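Review form for a predicted model. The reviewer records the input and the model, then writes brief findings.
Reviewer: anonymous (R2)
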Amino acid sequence: MNESHPPLPLIEPDLDAHYSLEVVAEITGIATQTILHYREEGLLPSGPTAARKEEIFFDDATLCTLRRIDHLARQYEMSTPALKLLCDLLEEVESLRAALRSRH
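Model under review:
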């Protein structure tokens, strides 16, 4: 029996959305101290800060980066320097891809 389900509504991402450290920790399941460590090590972009210095905000792209970093750290037991090198290489590859796309 093939039941027809109504189509799911399209959800457009809010490209201007920013999340507090606590919300990011809750969404990702990654401890706030770990997120701050990744940020201090330069693995995550610094992103916008609020009026109070201690309040940090993260965007959707940073959430994706954070999930990738945490996956690599846990799955492959990568050290922070190895994660930094890999992130730099991935960023360079994406930059080269963008340059190739712009040529076509």
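Findings: The chain has a mean pLDDT of 86.
Further findings: The longest helix spans residues 80-103.
Recommendation: see findings above.
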